[in-house]
Design brief:
Structural class: alpha+beta
Number of domains: 3
Strand content: 15-25%
Low-confidence stretches: 184-200, 273-278
Keywords: Membrane, Transmembrane, Transmembrane helix
Shape: flat
CATH architecture of the largest domain: Sandwich
Distance between the termini: 63 Å
Organism: Pseudomonas flavocrustae
CATH class of the largest domain: Mainly Beta
Largest sheet: 5 strands, mixed
Protein name: Permease
């Protein structure tokens, strides 16, 4: 019956009740997250200067013209636009008097805009450039949850200068800006080292390493002698190990949350996910 006594000793510990409470709170939070019903549209973006910057992707010997005019600056921006809620959004939900559009202002001219990928062809995503070549309008037949579209825009203005406007029924706060599309596997240290070594220091890998060490410290704390936790001996080792476990776990979870892929997997496009916030 040694296991029974061990169980009672475990339950009698002060931290056990707190742990059970935290698990209950986590279960309630997960239940809410999986049962909620929201209407939400989100977008993310990545930009790159192709011409007209110190770090451009085109050699200086190449010049670009548009309708007979030479373009001194050329930027490429890729938008990922998707239904991030749990309810369907149909094209008729877009208010005709205030359509969904990306506005690039008067500093540059939109040269082209195209749909380079969509989660399913049946959603009927389309883009249209305004008559003044300063805005890109987005339209679609419907977006089920996780349906979306990837849009490429070439323009002669600054790469990150744009605004988004538009009214969608059921979205009084407008579209959700998820920020720049982050590189998913880029290493922090890249100069002078191999790709394999650099990959070990990729941001998400550092997050998983932090969680691993947090788990090691947690196991060490759990298997400490009971006398340590009941303060019959100096409790400093337990407090130190527990604190280290909490720091590593929290750091790892934070890194994984910040660097997570925010858009659906169906919208991954070769070359876009690695474009990053350059």
């Amino acid at each position: 019956m040694g296991w029974l006594k061990w169980s009672f000793d475990l339950i009698s510990q002060g931290w056990f009740g707190s742990a059970v409470g935290l698990v209950g709170i986590g279960a309630a939070l997960l239940t809410y997250l999986f049962s909620r019903q929201r209407k939400r549209i989100s977008y993310s973006y990545s930009g790159r200067t192709l011409l007209g910057a110190n770090h451009q992707d085109l050699p200086e010997e190449i010049s670009v013209t548009y309708e007979g005019r030479q373009i001194n600056k050329l930027s490429r921006i890729v938008f990922i636009f998707w239904n991030s809620g749990e309810k369907i959004v149909v094209g008729d939900d877009i208010v005709k008097a205030d359509p969904v559009r990306f506005d690039f202002g008067e500093e540059g001219v939109i040269l082209s805009a195209s749909v380079i990928s969509q989660s399913r062809p049946v959603i009927g995503a389309q883009v249209k450039i305004s008559d003044h070549h300063d805005m890109v309008f987005i339209d679609f037949d419907f977006l089920d949850p996780n349906d979306g579209v990837v849009i490429e825009v070439l323009h002669s203005g600054p790469r990150g200068e744009f605004s988004i406007y538009g009214t969608v029924k059921g979205l009084p706060k407008g579209l959700t800006d998820m920020g720049k599309t982050l590189r998913m596997s880029e290493g922090i240290f890249t100069a002078g080292i191999s790709r394999a070594v650099s990959g070990m220091f990729a941001t998400r890998n550092l997050g998983w390493m932090s969680i691993f060490f947090g788990g090691v410290f947690s196991c060490a704390a759990l298997f400490l002698p009971a006398e340590v936790w009941t303060r019959k001996v100096d409790a400093a080792p337990a407090a130190l190990i527990g604190s280290m476990a909490a720091i590593y776990l929290a750091s790892g979870l934070f890194i994984l949350y910040v660097t997570r892929r925010k858009y659906p997997k169906s919208l991954i496009v070769d070359g876009v996910d690695r474009l990053g916030p350059s």
